[in-house]
Structures are given as structure tokens and as C-alpha cells.
Amino acid sequence: MCTSVQPTQWSSDLNDQNFDGIVLVTQSYETLPPELQSLKAPLQDYSSVDSGLCDEVVLLKVPGLSGNRLVFACTGPVNRDYDDVRRFSDAAGNGLKRALKAGMQRPLLVCPPHKDYPNSGTVAALGALHALYMPLEVREANVKASNHKVCVLGLWAAQEAEGRRLVELADALESGRLAYRDIGGSDPERMAAPRVAEYVQELFSNSPVKVEVVSDVKVLEKEYPCLAAVNRCANCVPRHQGRVIKLLYCGEGPVQKTLMLVGKGITYDTGGADIKAGGFMAGMHRDKCGAAAVAGFFQILAKLKPKHLKVVGSLAMVRNSVGSDCYVADELVVSRAGRRVRVGNTDAEGRMVMADLLCEMKEKAVQEVSPELFTIATLTGHAIRAMGPNYSIIMDNGPAHQKRTAAQWQEAGEVLGDVFEVSRIRREDYEFHKGKSEYEDILQCNNLPSSATPRGHQTPAAFLILTSGLDKHGVDSGAPLPYSHVDIAGSSGPFPGVPTGAPILAMATNYILSDGL
Q1: Phi and psi (nearest 5°) for 506?
Q2: How far is the C-alpha of 8 from the C-alpha of 157, rounded, in Å?
Q3: Is residue 317 classed as helix, strand or coil in its secondary structure?
């Protein structure tokens, strides 16, 4: 396994012969700073014969520049009423794709500062790195070839301190997204649960992150009965057997905040007995991106080593298989918290695999310093129906709402373009999951797709709170615990395509880089 990030280095010299071309990302060549004025004349000449300069990525021959080549990737207008910093990452990604097509192997990315977006350079670098990601299966199939699409990515900066910081930050953040993409994007055999465990153990073998893997089916059945129900069918196939992967990071100094993260890691979602029919199963290997996000965030922790922060993580790695031993609708499963759950639809497996891990986090949280609990999952089609693709959704319980957790995540997401919409958990969501007979305390799900269910992305959060026993830790309890549910069904990335890494940039900004980028 190769998990090395695309090599990067900084430069302030547009004529640096270590590079074979320049990729310029900016809103307008008319506003270039003095250090970049040499790029203005060739772009003016080009625009005199092509008024569409800012409409698409163009390649110019410019003698004297690095490689004599200039790719111009215009961000287009950046209107502060409705735009955001993603204009820079989009333009940089498109610019790098054009550079690759031109045959560049040592491109220098130049993104001058923008008065309204102080982090535009970092965002552009991350956009370029996203375009340069090489899938894990491709890297492993070409063991004798390069593991990178280019030899080096240059990042322009006017000053040395700025350049060094840009490279350091881009490398750390991209290392987390690399792990996320490897786990979340790789096919259901390459990243079946046992192989995810192997990947994570190797990833953190020489780092401050501690790893524990729970694989014994008897332990899973005893400690995580809801997860074990989903795992029951897959457990018959050794290479598909479930795993709970636990991660721990403790920064230097006294702990001031404790984050407790549970990630949904469904390695493949057939829907189970309520099978996904009509062609809706394709792409369901991406149902593990919540767990991938937890692993990716821990990789950023390992790189940046923030002080006074403790982070506890659990990855629920399970395959939702269909077969003679699969769990079915109508079953009663008693959760770790002692709640009797009536299965309504086996395709609502994500909430099942996370509920008992969230309960375990709840049990530990009462002993932790300033704990905040989270579930992160590609959970519902309703999230996409409600907010559209590209947006993560976050919703708070009462204690988290009082702390403004969701609002803080949304604000943090704007910094590097890892954007959020805030939703709310309401009384109707709890009522939806109340047992409908004497047999059960909680109904897991109705019989409709989430996208066809009113409040289809909010109700699962209420289920998780009820099934884990977190409802006993609300604002009116003696031990309130802040909990937020994050649905990344829309933001985790397109299929076919490459996973985005959402929401780990927002998490890093909020909890690691809060003192500034």
C-alpha cells in the first residue's frame, strides 16, 4: 500500500526552471499583484483575439516563463452575495486537468491573494491536489510506475514563510483526504471490512494515533447487537466479516476538549432483504465514506498534532449483504442501551451499525473533558433531495444547539469550501420512531425510501438518539451531552468520480486550525 501524498514544493519565481509550466488561477488578470505583472501582457494579447478568455481554461505559449507555458483558469466572477471560496478550488482543478493534458509533469500553481478570500491560495492548492489524486487500485496495479500523476506540484508564494506554511498545510490536509478517498472510493472487495482494518493499522503504524480492531463475532454480538444483526449475513463469508475499528488521539498538554466520532462504514449496501432493485445498487461501495471521514480526520491529527485535544473514533465496518442469514424487517433487536428496536426496513442499516457505537461513546463521554459526540454518515437520499448535491448537513441535539455546534461547523466549512447546511431535529422526528405496538420501544424505519419520507434526513438522528440512550442526556438532564449528526450523502462525492473528503476540511478548520490558517 502506498499512501504518500502528491509531492509539493513552493516557489516565488515564475521563471523557475524546476517547473515546466504555470497554472494561473485568479478572478481577473487585470488585478494581478506586482510580483505577477509579467503574466498580464500575454493574457491581454490573448483576450484581444478571444473574448472568451474567462469562459474556459486556455493554454498559451509564453517564452521566458517556466516551461514557456501558461494555463489560465479563471474563477469567473466571485459575487459575495451567493458565491464562496469553492470558485478557486474548481478553477484550480480544471487548470490542473488542462496542464496534465498538455503533458506537464512539474506545474507551478499560482493563485494570488484575493481581498475577500484570504485562504484562496490554500483552497486552490487543495483543488489541484484533488485533481491529482490517483486511485488506490491504480497505484497498486502499477507498482513499478509512479504513484503520482505529476512529479511535483509547485505552489507559488511571494514570501518564504507563506510558502512553507502553504506546503505544510496542503500536505497535512491532503494526507487526510487521501486516506478518505482510498477507504471511501475503493471497490467493495479492496476495502472490505478486514482490509479496511489492515489499511488503517498500516496507516497509523508509526503515528500518535492508537488503533484497536474488534473482529470476534461473539464480542460484536454482545457489545454491538444492532451492528451484529446487519453483519450476520456477511459474517458467513470470511473476507466480508465485520470489524469495529477504534482510534484514539491524545494531544500534548491537559485535555481541553474531547471529540467522539462514529463513522458509518457500510462496505457495500445491497439493501439486504429489502434489496435495492431497479439499478439503484451501483455505487453503494461509497456507503463507507462516513468511516472514511473519521479515518481521514485522524490522519490530519497525526500530521498536525494539535495540543490539548483528545479524539476518540469508531469505524463501523460492515457489509449489508443479502442471503439466507440476513436480518429482515419485523425482527426485534435489543440495542446496547436496552431499547427494543423493531426493524422496519433492512436498507436503513446505517443507523443500526452506528447506534451501539454511539451508545458506547455516550457511556465514556460522562467521564471525559468537554465531550462532543458526532455520527458521520452517507445516510439518506433525502439529504440530497433536501439540499442538493455538494452540501453536508449537520443537526444538533439540545445541548449541542446551545453550544452552536452546527453553526460553528457551517462557519468553519466556509473557510476552505467544505460547505454545510444546518438542519434541526424536531419533536416529529422522535414521534416518528416511537414503537407502534407493545412489542417494541423504537421503530427503526418506515417502508419508504428516505427521499420519499417527510423529514427523511432528520428522523434518523432521532433514532440514533433514542436507540443509544442519548435522550437521557438532553438539556434538562443532570449530565447533558452535546451530540450532532452529520449526513454527507450529498457531499461525499459523485459516482462515477472521486470522493471529496467532506467534511474533514471543516472539521480540521474548526478543531485544529481554529487559531488561523
Answers
A1: -65, -40
A2: 13
A3: strand
Cα 40 from chain centroid (whole Å): 37
Answer yes or no: are the C-beta atoms of 465 and 373 closer than 8 Å. Answer: no
Among the CATH numbers 3.30.530.20, 3.40.1130.10, 3.40.220.10, 3.40.50.300, which is that of 8-158?
A: 3.40.220.10
Q: Decide: 300 and 171 in contact? Cβ < 8 Å.
A: no
Q: Reply yes or no: is the peptide bond before residue 399 cis, omega within 30 of 0.
A: no
The CA distance from 43 to 29, in Å, is: 7
Domain boundaries, the chain: 8-158, 184-511
**Catalytic residue list:** 276, 351
Is pTM beyond 0.90? Reply is yes
Whole-number pLDDT of residue 80? 80
Give residue-wise pLDDT tens across range 185-244. 999 999 999 999 999 999 999 999 999 999 999 999 999 999 999 999 999 999 999 999
DSSP E strand stretches across 196-283: 210-214, 243-250, 257-269
C-alpha cell, 175: 494526507
Q: For the chain, which residues score pLDDT lower than 50?
A: none
Within 150-256, strands assigned E span: 153-156, 210-214, 243-250
Q: CB of 277 within 8 A of CB of 188?
A: no
SS3 of the chain: helix, strand, coil, percent, to 5: 40, 20, 40
- SS3 for 325-337 is CCCCCCCEEECCC
